[in-house]
Specification:
This protein is of the alpha+beta class and about 1050 residues long. It is built from 33 helices and 33 strands. Strands 15, 16, 17, 20, 21, 24 and 30 form a 7-stranded mixed β-sheet that branches. Strands 3, 4, 5, 6, 13 and 14 form a 6-stranded mixed β-sheet that branches. Belongs to the heat shock protein 70 family.
Length: about 1050
């Protein structure tokens, strides 16, 4: 790291030394910029790999030269290092992401974490789905299965199906329907927002958003327990028919729970994504149209999805799903069937008790809760059986209920519901402008599709041979949502899968302006502009330009044509007016730039991945022609260019390889014109769709509406002047054929367009459902946090009480076991037993009001009292195993020492000091063991032992350390070189020497016999293995004289062999 400044080197060292966790996978989902390579790395890597790459690549000569050359680049490197370390620290905090599939009756939670790809979370009862039920009492809360069991005991405090009240005002038909279905709940009225809330008691009241927030917080606790790490990021599923108010209500609930919502994904889209992810090999360029029919507990949604591979800008050919058509029924589902069964069972029970003067069972909330639970079980059983016996013990007034119900009776009760089954299919086909022949397969999703009559009616409606059941009807949405969560998270990289969702409810902009139809006659004209059309893809951005306003004005954002909804659905839908936008500062912007030409008031709209509409900003745009004057680049500009060059030459947009397909921002269309309304709308549509084709640059008079950074503004200015300068430049090049001189170029440089953007003040008046004010939102979040802390304190106290009670019972039982009686006296056992009985009595009499601290102190006192007894028992249990291990180690160490002393002196690798030290440790350990065992044998069993297991382990560790030291030395020791004779001739090679070694024998010169040479002593064959691998060394004066006497060719050969 010599090329880096000291601060950077220190930062890397501190980070590597204190922050990194081994094996932590932090593969970025987006291309991660490697600042020292000027490239984008898309491979999964760990934190250690990133930092090691950083440390390794900085040694490259190019980077060193760059750092030495300019000081601004050093500053840039420091900034990039800080950004990289901050990113890594953020990734190391939390890596897991979760999804919550919020159904009407139950929810499924899934997680993705390093090493655990897409797993359904098990709840505390080890079930894969959890009831969407919350029980709220004065001092405690229950969730899931615990709350469902409380529905019988306390139906008023147990809240179910509360999602049906999200985003709805008090006069909504669904509120009245909820009151009719669950009369035990008292719904209060919030005059500020015109909504309802649950009145549990005079002191307890919660809005539907707060109840949902509690449930989301509970789902996060389940996910964190399963993942064993904190989780903040989540993708939540919502029904596809949720409007803007309902989606905002879910986001507010998640905000109260402290969850960061990566996306609200439609449950039908999540199901389609799960289906496509596990079948991506079957997706090709040929479009496949699949229909998903999802009938859950509360509603039914039919979706037509098209799968095919498309060419993406960054990842090449990738699979894509596109939502083509959607149909739904808000109230058709399993709950309505269960309610009708409940009503039928209540009638049967009243008939059985007729004439006894009994009350109507419908007036007893507990009895109705029991009947609803039995109706749910009955519906499930009748799906596989022709008849079944419904029975409830002690339904009301200790009277048992028993009645036989057949499938035919059930189908007759729900006959009108089964007639509504084909309607979502027809709506989906109509919105997709397709027919049934184009649908390849119809797949069933949702629990209510298991009812045989539903399948029979649906099969007849779609005209297929069979219905597809090759998907997990309960978990598909949760799995698709968690895949999307991993794709949107920065901590994971998944295979790209393009998702193009569709707008269900069109949105338009309405405004009024004055027009002069005849000279001197002015009138108001109402204009409408479709912002997001029905079944159009999202997320996407749109810009609308108001050209003829020079003063403050208002416009309205409303829903478009909702004619596809029936009269009842329109009443449930609520307000069709979304927002009134009041602009302030338009006139001041015109006064500020009087010499500039106005390009209109541009309103930037965004329909994000969650399907939530927002107004990003409103700008007043002006343009004028200015002449360029050459000027020196400032130091700040140079520094900015230096930083940009480190990022690969400039800023690149952060594109998502996976997730919802980002639509290019639309060109702003004219807000008004001289044509009539239909003509204006058609003109707007053409201009809005032109940029999506990307075949021609936009005209210079209509620049892009996106407010860009300064770097991009400069690009826009350059692009703006090119169309004007292009003809003259071409003419000059054609006539002269040579480029003009620099001075002439400066003189002839044409004027360029300068764009000025002024931010306009915006005041939003929400018309559909006002959001919670920030102070109320903070109060709700604090209230829920206090409830969570109270629950945690309660759990801690219960845990302490259970631990104390368990210790008392276990210890009382141990006092009568032989191994405990052997090491204790009668007096000791009586003392312990008396203290245990006293504490047990205290726990029964006063323990109910004891605090957690008091319970823990009582437990600590008892453990201290019994500590000596338990210690003596545990030590006696460990002695046999520990002593046997010590004997084995001593025997093996003695054998090792004996073998080491038998090694010949020439080959000895251990020193005398080392062997003497080992022998000393062995002797001392033997002596300690024999003395301690003998001393322990003299002590009574009731006394504290002197032979301790920890001392035995310490002796074993000391002895093992000495042996391991010698073993490691033997493992890595190099053999000693062989001694040479006095005349320096090398030893004769061993029998197993290679041919190349044999060829190195010295050949005597002509006329001299080999007998005249001195004979060398044979070499000991102690290093036969090294003779094969290592070249022989020649040394001594004798060897030099022999080499001089050899011919020249032989000398070269010898040198080459040595090399």
């Amino acid at each position: 790291m010599q090329g880096f400044p000291p601060a950077a080197r220190s930062a890397v060292r501190d980070f590597v030394g204190s922050t990194l966790q081994p094996g932590l996978q932090t593969a970025p989902q987006k291309p991660a910029l490697c600042p020292l390579l000027n490239t984008t790395s898309q491979t999964a890597c760990s934190c250690e790999t990133l930092v090691s790459c950083l440390v390794r690549e900085q040694n490259r000569d190019t980077v060193e030269a760059m750092v030495r050359r300019q000081r601004p680049r050093r500053l840039a490197c420091l900034a990039l290092m800080a950004v990289l370390l901050a990113d890594l620290l953020a990734l190391s905090d939390t890596l897991a992401v979760m999804s919550v599939d919020l159904g009407s009756e139950s929810m499924k939670v899934a997680i993705v974490k390093p090493g655990v790809p897409m797993e359904i979370v098990l709840n505390k009862e080890s079930r894969r789905k959890t009831p969407v039920t919350v029980t709220l009492k004065e001092n405690e809360r229950f969730f899931g299965d615990s709350a469902a069991s409380m529905a019988i005991k306390n139906p008023k405090a147990t809240l179910r199906y509360f999602q049906h009240l999200l985003g709805k005002q008090e006069n909504n038909p669904h509120v009245a329907l909820y009151r009719a279905r669950f009369p035990e709940h008292e719904l209060g009225f919030d005059p500020q927002r015109q909504t309802v809330y649950f009145q549990i008691s005079p002191q307890l009241q919660f809005s539907p958003e707060e109840v949902l927030s509690m449930l989301l917080n509970y789902s996060r606790s389940l996910a964190e327990d399963f993942a064993e790490q904190p989780i903040k990021d989540a993708v939540i599923t919502v029904p596809a028919f949720f409007n803007q108010a309902e989606r905002r209500a879910v986001l507010q609930a998640a905000r109260m729970a402290g969850l960061k919502v990566l996306q609200l994904i439609n449950d039908n889209t999540a199901t389609a994504l799960s289906y496509g992810v596990f079948r991506r090999k079957d997706i090709n360029t040929t479009a496949q149209n699949i229909m998903f029919y999802d009938m859950g507990s509360g509603s039914t949604v039919c979706t037509i999805v098209t799968y095919q591979t498309v060419k993406t800008k960054d990842a090449g050919m990738q699979p894509q799903l596109q939502i083509r058509g959607v149909g739904f029924d808000r109230t058709l589902g399993g709950l309505e069937m269960e309610l009708r069964l409940r009503e039928h069972l209540a009638g049967l029970f009243n008939e059985q008790r007729k004439g006894q003067g009994a009350k109507d069972v419908r007036e007893n909330p507990r009895a109705m809760a029991k009947l609803l639970r039995e109706a749910n079980r009955l519906k499930t059983v009748l799906s596989a059986n022709a008849d079944h016996m419904a029975q409830i013990e002690g339904l009301m007034d200790d009277v048992d209920f028993k009645a036989k119900v057949t499938r035919a009776e059930f189908e007759e009760l729900c006959a009108d519901l089964f007639e509504r089954v084909p309607r979502p299919v027809q709506q989906a086909l109509q919105s997709a402008q397709m027919n049934l022949d184009e649908i390849e397969q119809v797949i069933l999703v949702g629990g209510a599709t298991r009812v045989p009559k539903v399948q029979e009616v649906l099969l007849k409606a779609v005209g297929k041979e069979e219905l597809g059941k090759n998907i997990n009807a309960d978990e598909a949405a949760a799995m698709g949502a968690v895949y999307q969560a991993a794709a949107l998270s920065k901590a994971f990289k998944v295979k790209p899968f393009v998702v193009r969702d569709a707008v269900i409810y069109p949105i338009l902009v309405e405004f009024t302006r004055e027009v002069e139809e005849e000279p001197g006659v002015r009138s108001l004209k109402h204009n409408k502009r479709v912002l997001f059309s029905r079944m159009g893809p999202y997320p996407q951005r749109k810009v609308i330009t108001f050209n003829r306003y020079s003063h403050d004005f208002n416009f309205h954002i409303n829903y478009g044509d909702l004619g596809f909804l029936g009269p009842e659905d329109l009443r449930v839908f609520g307000s069709q007016n979304l927002t009134t936008v009041k602009l302030k500062g338009v006139g001041e912007s015109f006064k500020k730039y009087p010499d500039y030409e106005s390009k209109g008031i541009k309103a930037h709209f965004n329909l994000d991945e969650s399907g939530v509409l927002s107004l990003d900003r409103v700008e007043s745009v002006f343009e004028t022609l200015v002449e360029d004057s050459p000027e020196e680049e400032s130091t700040l500009t140079k520094l900015g260019n230096t930083i940009s060059s480190l990022f690969g030459g400039g800023s690149t947009p952060d594109t998502k390889e996976n997730g919802t397909d980002t639509i290019q921002e639309e060109e702003e269309g004219p807000a008004e014109g001289s044509k009539d309304e239909p003509g204006e709308q058609a003109e707007l549509k053409e201009e809005a769709e032109a940029p999506a084709e990307d075949t021609s640059p936009p005209p210079p008079s209509e620049p892009k509406g996106d407010a860009a950074p300064e770097g991009e503004k400069a690009t826009e200015k350059d692009n703006g002047e090119k169309p004007e300068a292009q003809p003259s430049e071409k003419g000059e090049a054609g006539s002269e054929g040579v480029p003009p001189a620099p001075e002439e170029g400066k003189k002839q440089k044409p004027a360029r367009k300068q764009k000025m953007v002024e931010e306009i003040g915006v005041e939003l008046v929400v018309l559909d459902l006002p959001d919670l004010p920030e102070d109320e939102l903070a109060r709700s979040a604090q209230k829920l946090q206090d409830l969570t802390l109270r629950d945690l304190e309660k759990q801690e106290r219960e845990k302490a009480a259970n631990s104390l009670e368990a210790f008392i019972f276990e210890t009382q039982d141990k006092l009568y076991q032989s191994e405990y009686q052997e090491v204790s006296t009668e007096e000791q056992r009586e003392d312990i037993s008396g203290r245990l009985s006293a504490t047990s009595t205290w726990l029964e009499d006063e323990g109910f009001g004891a605090t957690t601290v008091m319970l823990k102190e009582k437990l600590a006192e008892l453990k201290k009292l019994c500590q000596g007894l338990f210690f003596r028992v545990e030590e006696r249990k460990k002695w046999p195993e520990r002593l046997s291990a010590l004997d084995n180690l001593l025997n093996h160490s003695s054998m090792f020492l004996k073998g080491a002393r038998l090694i010949p002196e020439m080959d000895q690798i251990f020193t005398e000091v080392e062997m003497t030290t080992l022998e000393k440790v062995i002797n001392e350990t033997w002596a300690w063991k024999n003395a301690t065992v003998a001393e322990q044998a003299k002590l009574p069993a009731t006394e504290k032992p002197v032979l301790l297991s920890k001392d035995i382990e310490a002796k074993m560790m000391a002895l093992d350390r000495e042996v391991q030291y010698l073993l490691n030395k033997a493992k890595f020791a190099k053999p000693r070189p062989r001694p040479k004779d006095k005349n320096g001739t090398r030893a004769e090679p061993p029998l197993n020497a290679s041919a190349s070694d044999q060829g190195e024998k010295v050949i005597p010169p002509p006329g001299q016999t080999e007998d005249a040479k001195p004979v060398s002593e044979p070499e000991k064959e102690t290093r036969s293995e090294s003779a094969d691998s290592e070249p022989l060394e020649l040394g001594g004066p004798g060897a030099e004289s022999e080499q001089k006497e050899q011919p020249t060719g032989q000398k070269r050969t010898l040198k080459n062999d040595e090399l």
